[in-house]
Design brief:
The protein has about 425 residues and is mostly helical. Helices cover about 65% and strands about 0% of the residues. The protein has helices at about 20-50, 50-70, 80-100, 100-110, 125-135, 140-150, 155-165, 165-185, 195-215, 225-245, 250-260, 285-305, 310-320, 330-345, 350-360, 365-370, 380-395, 400-410, 415-430. It comes from Terrabacter lapilli.
């Protein structure tokens, strides 16, 4: 069936869209999705009070952009265009549903009239959306997954990889979370100041995972690094710190992000291969971010309060970024900090990261024994196999190392990391086992 002609174009023949214009529009839509998704969803959530309506209307607006921008051109303000289009989609949807359900009609009247919502201590739609998704009524993993979807704009497969679960399981978890928020009438707001401390743990975990996805994107079709996500996570961490300026873990998370983000420009080679910390050109690190991160770490140490998880991770990164050369790294201090962290967070991933440091201090054989005890718990985690492969390589056990590299490559989703692992594996074929 032919589509109806747009009245604005009636009387003239539509010109074919050039390939360059189509490519420009496609790039603009992708960029807008990275930069504007959270803002559009948060704006809709505030106006309509329904996460399903917000997410689906935002998705429809982006789909419309994919269709129209190649022909009409990219609008001067893509974010405003997408927000306006998404609002219209949401209103149309609620009007359709109101014909079937009087309650929806009542909701339409309330939300389309833009009844003001309480804004709380900070007037930022995205921060309010995070606190909504991180409500204590939801399980912690559900809070994190929902916020990665609604605020970070990550796909369900990307979130599933972050949690090491099946896509179907993660999809059901997110759907149930949105339904629970709607049924329980969980308010869309930053909670009152008195309630902030008990709510902040989930928010910090969310921001950390959003940052991690930007630091090393998990999707096979994604850019290896997603600076939009790291920048948004840092922005929201700064806002959270204005809410809780004396909270050590908020300061620790911000320091951790800054010290990690400082190394971004050195992390991927011109050929697209991941560059490990040991091989990075430290002159390319951002000295301003490092100085700010170090200052935050020093402030927390001076407080005399026992550090939490994010403060310890920030301190570990401070040790790394203090060394002018990898050979100057104080590995005994790194291991000591990991020993403290393991007591707070005895997860297998923390134990794996500690093993990497132990390899530098006590040798690869000691570290390999630690990794061996983690194999069952982290069987589907590519970093376990990559770490094991490197340790086996250093011990001269080439055949075992190749097999471990193969498994790591199979499980990895980031193309820069795959390129690095592939090169390291292929180098093994150039030399026999000892």
């Amino acid at each position: 069936m032919n589509r109806p002609v747009d009245r604005a174009r009636a009387g003239r023949t539509a010109a074919p869209v050039s390939s360059s214009r189509a490519a420009e529009a496609s790039e603009a839509v992708a960029r807008a999705h990275r930069e504007e998704w959270a803002r559009v969803v948060a704006s809709l959530a505030r106006r309509f009070g329904d996460l399903d309506v917000a997410e689906e209307s935002a998705a429809e607006a982006f789909a419309t952009a994919v269709e129209r921008w190649p022909a009409d051109g990219v609008p001067p303000n893509p974010g405003a265009w997408l927000t306006t289009t998404a609002n219209r989609k949401a209103i149309d949807r609620l009007r359709r549903e109101s014909k079937r359900d009087e309650k929806q009609k009542e909701a339409l009247t309330v939300h389309v009239n833009d009844a003001p919502a309480p804004v709380g201590p900070v007037d930022d739609d995205r921060l309010r959306l995070i606190f909504t998704c991180c409500h204590p009524a939801l399980a912690m993993e559900t809070r994190v997954a929902l916020t990665l979807r609604m605020v970070g704009g990550l796909t369900v497969p990307e979130i599933a990889r972050a949690f090491l679960v099946q896509e179907s399981t993660m999809g059901q978890r997110i759907t149930r979370a949105k339904a629970k928020i709607k049924a329980a009438r969980i308010p869309y707001r930053v909670p009152p100041a008195a309630d902030l401390p008990v709510r902040v743990s989930g928010v910090l975990t969310v921001l950390y995972l959003v940052f991690n996805e930007g630091y090393l994107a998990s999707g096979p079709g994604s850019d290896p690094l997603r600076p939009d996500l790291t920048a948004e996570a840092i922005r929201l961490a700064r806002l959270t710190r204005t809410l809780l300026p004396d909270d050590g873990e908020v300061a620790g998370l911000l320091a951790l992000m800054l010290l990690t983000e400082a190394r971004r420009d050195a992390r991927v080679a011109p050929d697209g291969e991941l560059v490990t910390l040991a091989e990075q050109d430290r002159r390319a690190w951002d000295a301003t971010l490092i100085a700010e991160g170090h200052q935050l770490v020093r402030e927390r140490l001076a407080s005399g309060v026992a550090p939490g998880r994010f403060q310890l991770l920030a301190a570990i990164n401070a040790v790394h970024t203090s060394a002018p050369d990898v050979r100057d790294t104080d590995w005994s201090q790194v291991v000591a900090l990991y020993d403290q962290l393991v007591r707070l967070d005895p997860s297998p991933i923390v134990a794996l990261n500690r093993a990497v440091a132990v390899a530098e201090l006590d040798g690869p054989e000691v570290a390999l024994a630690i990794v061996g005890r983690l194999q069952e718990a982290l069987a589907g985690y590519h970093a376990l196999h990559a770490t094991r492969a490197d340790l086996l390589r250093r011990l001269g056990r080439g055949d075992e190392a190749r097999a471990a590299y193969d498994r790591a490559i199979e499980l990895a989703g980031n193309r820069a990391e795959i390129a690095y692992l592939t090169r390291r594996r292929d180098e093994l074929s150039e030399r026999p086992d000892h």
